[in-house]
Specification:
The protein has 10 helices and 10 strands. By secondary structure, it is an alpha/beta fold. The chain folds into 2 domains: 160 residues, P-loop containing nucleotide triphosphate hydrolases (Rossmann fold, 3-Layer(aba) Sandwich); 69 residues, no CATH class. The strands form 2 sheets. It has a 6-stranded mixed beta sheet, sandwiched between helices. Helix 3 packs parallel to helix 6.
Length: 235
């Protein structure tokens, strides 16, 4: 079943035409990755889905409902969690308090049980449950940002550049966590620049460049296409 679909989406920042007719779909249970260079339009695609950047043309559908013109909080309550690149961990709140804020947008009861399940993915956060956000490392803040999205029990998670700036061991840990989240039933739309991470996690990939989709296919197809990698990914 198609969970999310974008149809010919055009998004502007002022007069700058950022997304120039983006169409894509995410099926239930998939990990789909948007990959491309900086400035390709990947983050703007996620912001357009969430209503943070409002498309001027085109349509965004989630669970067969047109959500193009809904407010961001209404979109979140329909079951989409957004983990932004900036993480936006609240520095003066503890790990537990940050997670409880994430639970406010949850779609299901049993928040305490859900919290325990999420902390099972992130034992480091459990150890630091009373620490304030400003005292966490960059990797721990990224884990908290993902965990805060998970506690709302979303049907779909939008995750923007989770591995950027992290040490290789943390990249491996987060890759494994995202794969496990997906195995347990959460669909993921991922923005990623690291080709190895994208190929390891994804069921399908879209390559973006200059606000357009330039390639759609499987990890195997992208891995065997050096021309696409060289033209749009700089590999």
């Amino acid at each position: 079943m198609t969970l999310l679909e974008l149809e010919d989406v055009h998004t502007y920042y002022g007069e700058a035409h950022i997304l120039q007719g983006v169409s894509l779909r995410v099926g239930e249970g998939e990990v789909v990755t948007l990959i491309g260079r900086n400035g390709a339009g990947k983050t703007t695609t996620l912001r357009s889905i969430m209503g943070i950047a409002r498309p001027r043309r085109g349509r965004v559908r989630f669970l067969d409902e047109d959500i193009t013109h809904l407010e961001t909080h209404a979109i979140a309550r329909r079951g989409i969690a957004y983990v932004p690149e900036e993480r936006r961990v609240l520095p003066n709140l503890s790990v537990l308090e940050n997670l409880k804020l994430g639970m406010l947008g949850g779609r299901v009861d049993g928040g305490g049980r859900r919290l325990e399940e999420v902390l099972d993915h992130f034992p480091k956060l459990r150890e630091r449950i009373a620490h304030k956000g400003r005292f966490l490392s960059g990797g721990e803040q990224q884990m908290l940002a993902i965990a805060r999205g998970m506690v709302a029990a979303p049907a779909l998670m939008l995750v923007d550049e989770p591995t950027e700036g992290l040490a290789p061991l943390l990249v491996q840990t987060l890759t494994e966590v995202l794969a496990e989240i997906n195995r347990r039933g959460t669909t993921v739309l991922l923005v990623e620049q690291t080709l190895e991470v994208a190929l390891a996690l994804s069921h399908r990939l879209y390559v973006m460049d200059q606000g357009r989709i330039q390639f759609e296919g499987s990890p195997e197809a992208l891995g065997k296409d050096p021309s696409i990698q060289q033209r749009f990914l700089g590999v």
